[in-house]
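Review form for a predicted model. The reviewer records the input and the model, then writes brief findings.
Reviewer: anonymous (R2)
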Amino acid sequence: MLDEKVRALAEAANFAAFTTLLPGGQPQTHVMWVGCDDEHILINTEVHRRKFKNVEQDPRVTVAIIDAANPYSFAEVRGRVVEAIRGDEARAHIDQLANKYTGKDYQPDVQSERVILKIVPERQIAR
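Model under review:
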């Protein structure tokens, strides 16, 4: 279950730093749109991206969500990617995120296939 402060930050139009592990063990971080359901942090990417390939090899990730109104307010979730959802659901999800952040459907062309990464929290903090 997501902490209610974590959920509130993930539901709002706040950006997240999404960290995965490269094959050699080095961290790689990207600024991302973020969402959630009752139990998971949701990140949407494409299957050809390095971050997706990273989580296929090692599902451990960290997501830091920064409050756009007050950057000293943030949440950090350390956990694992437990599911990758592809197809129409992932494509619809990127439009939902785009509308949350930009007010319109996702504009860039999809280069490969959209995928939702469902992250189960193992450690959550919110400040």
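Findings: The two ends are 18 Å apart (CA to CA).
Further findings: The mean pLDDT is 96.
Recommendation: see findings above.
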